[in-house]
Every structure is written in structure tokens, then in C-alpha cells.
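Changelog note: in this version the structure field was regenerated for every chain. One regenerated record is shown below for reference.
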Amino acid sequence: MTSAYQLQLDAKIARISAQFAEFHPPSLEVFQSPEQHFRMRAEFRIWHTEDDMFYAMFERSEDNQKQVIRIDEFPIADSSINQLMPVLLQELKSNQVLSKRLFEVHFLATLKGEMLVSMIYRCPLDAEWESLAKQLAEKLNIKVIGRSRGQKVVLSDEFVVEELQVFDRTYKYKQIESSFTQPNAQVCQKMLEWACNAAEQSDKDLLELYCGNGNFTLPLSTRFNRVLATELAKSSVYAAQWNIEQNQIDNIQVARLSAEDFTQAYNGEREFRRLQEAKIDISSYDFDTVFVDPPRAGIDDETLKLIQRFERIIYISCNPDTLQDNLKTLSTTHKITQFAMFDQFPYTHHVESGVLLEKI
């Protein structure tokens, strides 16, 4: 009997294949997810009754009313999250200070076993809360952050360190609480290997736009002479630089620029002090490949014009609709030579796609 997961995956494959047929891509490579325990993040409301409290989520009824759904286990989340959920809840229930006006609990896990728990409150957090929360963190061997309006209490670290295996090498990644990280670590590893295979081996340089915490940057650096990666968010730039140092990689520079800023810098339209301070000389690079993993809105028109100059474009997309729209421009100068789908988000309609485009 075909599983519910497989039926939904088959529907995604059919949808993506049909959506991109106009570009005549090669056969779609499909990278599926484990059916359970694949999410490294989970966020729950805490629902209080007169004599109980429990994890909760909401769903809309047919008449558009919010319904509270009690969550005792969450099979799509990593096993470590499922194991911690009842233990943590029991500890919170037994302590009036830690449970008082607790609004949400967020879990961030790693494949290597670290866990960060963020507890969000609707009341100020005082010294007593901090003392009891530290005891809880030590007892359960977890990292804890407390939040309330205008307040953030970090008891040890505000991050976990993930380890991802790409071919025969393990990469360490700092993943900061409340910053974006790939939710499905096992599929992420497949994405990283696909991107490296698409890049092949080059004696020239790579430009990466929207690099985030360096998720793709680190393994891709093994395929190129040098890498220039750009990212605007300060926390992501900080994490990327930490990751580069921790992994002892010496051929990457990170520029804190948006894709639009970089386009202006590359075209010589503006000078940026940030480039001078970081001792980044764009003119010294000999790019033959550009890697992009843009936000859901896709790539702006000026950046599309920029990346069309490169021989090869590796494009990872979290939104097939904006990828399809961007390809209408890119396909005038490039053809798709590799086409992939990564099922990062089982049991939803969302997918990640990947294309390698080479100049016509």
C-alpha cells in the first residue's frame, strides 16, 4: 500500500514537472525526506486550563473558527524533540514560576544532539525565574532562552552548533535562535551534495548571493579557487564568518551587502565602505559561476541582469512560482542542464527546487 507521504510526493513531482515543462529541462532528480522525525525546529503554544497546561497548535474549522489542538507528540519533529517534550512539560507544570503566563515554547535541535529551548512569556522575567531556569537547563542538559516583551534572557548560548555531512567531510554550523536555518537537516545534506556536484570543479571563482549563515558556501568553497559571498543580515554574516573560521576554510570572503547593493558595486555605480573595511576587492575575482538561494520573492530585475553575465548559474529556490518567473528571463541566455526537487517540507505543498543553468 502506498503511504500518504509517497502519494503527496508523487503529486509534487507531477506538479513541478508540469510547471517547468516549458523550459525543456532534463529529467527531474528527486530527493525525498524521511517520512517522520525530519524537522529540527518545532514551535508550540502553551495552553492553560484550570488544572492543566499542554502544548497546542491551531487549525481552522469549516466555519473559519480557530480550534485548539492538543499536541502530546509531534511525529514530524526530530526524535530528540519528541523525547524532550513530555519531560520538559512535566518540569514546567511542577514549577509555578516557570509555568506562570508561559505563552509559547520553541525547540531547535541538531543532528548531533544539541537542543535549544526558547520559552516566551506574557510577564517580566525576574532573578527567581532565571535561577530556576538555569537549574532546569542543567537538569535536562539543554540550552534555555527566556523571552517576554522587551526582554531576552540568554542563560548560556543563543545558538546551537549543527554538524552536516557532505560527502566525506563534516561541516560545523552555528545556528542562532530566531534566525533562519534549514528545517530538514537530512534533506539539507542532499541539497549541499547536489549543489557541489552541479558546481563540478573549477579553477575560477564563485559568487554567491543571499548566503545566509554560509550553509552552501562552506562545501561549495571546495569546488572553486575563491568564493565571494554576500548577505545583508548582520546576524547571518556573523554566523557565516564564525562558521568559516571554525571549519578552517581560507578561500571565502563575506560581504555584508544585499544582492541589489552588490549589483551596484559590481557595475561600479557605487562604492561601499563595508567592502573597503573588509578589504574586499571585487575586481580581483575571476567569476565563472554564480550561486543564488533567494527569498520567496525571488530575484529582482537588476540582479537577474547581473547573473546572466556568468557562464553558469546554480539556483536553489523555495518558491517554484518565482523560480518559474525568473527562468523566463534567464532562459533567454541560459539553458537548464540539471533539474532537482528537494522535499524539505513533507505533508505541505511547499518544495525546494534546484536548477543548473549554462550559457547558450
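Spot check on this record: The chain has eleven helices and 17 strands. The longest strand covers residues 334-342.
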